[in-house]
TrEMBL record:
Highest rank taxon of the organism: Bacteria
Domain called Phospholipid/glycerol acyltransferase: residue spans: 53-170
Molecular function in Gene Ontology: 1-acylglycerol-3-phosphate O-acyltransferase activity
Native source organism of the sequence: Candidatus Galligastranaerophilus intestinavium
The keyword Acyltransferase is annotated on this UniProt entry: yes
One Pfam family from the record: Acyltransferase
Protein name: 1-acyl-sn-glycerol-3-phosphate acyltransferase
InterPro entries: Plipid/glycerol_acylTrfase
Length: 220
């Protein structure tokens, strides 16, 4: 059996069916269920132009991709760590299939590959936006620390501005319907891809720290 390249997707793969699957997952499954346990507050940037962006958020839970759909209200494509596509057995196939249906594609977190750049270019051609979590993994310590610089390289190669997004309130899972803690989803101001790498990273870190109320840790 030919091995599927989950890192390489084409413009035709980001289509109306992807959007419908995202809307179904968000409005039929996620929001009705999780609204029983949380209160969601979205602060959107209504001045964004009608063009594709890279939405870059801090990463606090496995629910974050759905939170990003909720706050952006735009069709999104997601970078998903390649390990999610390497789970064995039928469950692994189910995970890989559904991530792909939701607009996800595989990414090597250790190095940026050519297939990743090509996929990013194609998803923008399809008028999808890219969702990425620069921290490279879930961080629940309420600090904005070191981040993966790959999102800056992608922004410059595809010539797309970056919109910082701050997610907070879901650092711990709650299953008590009487508590319902608030989950805040806040958009920041676009960062031009034409800025230097250092300026983009610092701007993103500062905005996300402000949006979340997290500590802005010193870089090593």
């Amino acid at each position: 059996m030919e091995k599927i390249n989950h890192a390489r997707k084409y413009a035709k793969d980001f289509n109306i069916l992807t959007r419908l699957y995202q809307y179904y997952a968000l409005y039929i499954l996620y929001i009705p269920i999780f609204s029983l346990f949380y209160r969601f507050k979205c602060s959107r940037n209504k001045t964004l132009e009608k063009k594709p962006y890279i939405f870059a958020a801090n990463h606090i839970s496995y629910c974050d991709p759905f939170l990003m759909n909720m706050v952006t209200v735009r069709p999104l494509a997601y970078m998903a760590k390649k390990e999610l596509y390497e789970v064995k057995g039928n469950f692994g196939k189910w995970v890989a299939t559904n991530i792909s249906r939701l607009g996800g594609f595989s990414v090597n977190r250790e190095k940026l590959e050519v297939s990743t750049i090509k996929t990013c270019r194609d998803l923008f051609k399809a008028n999808f936006n890219l969702c990425i979590f620069p921290q490279g993994g879930i961080r629940k310590n309420k600090k904005i620390e070191e981040i993966n610089k790959g999102f800056v390289v992608i922004a410059k190669m595809v010539k797309a501005d970056i919109v910082p997004v701050g997610l907070s309130g879901l650092e711990k899972y709650n299953w008590n319907i009487f508590k319902r803690p608030i989950v805040n989803l806040k958009m920041g101001t676009p960062i031009s891809y034409e800025l230097s790498e250092e300026e983009i990273i610092q701007n993103w870190r500062e905005q996300v720290a402000k949006l979340t109320g997290y500590e802005l840790a010193d870089l090593k």
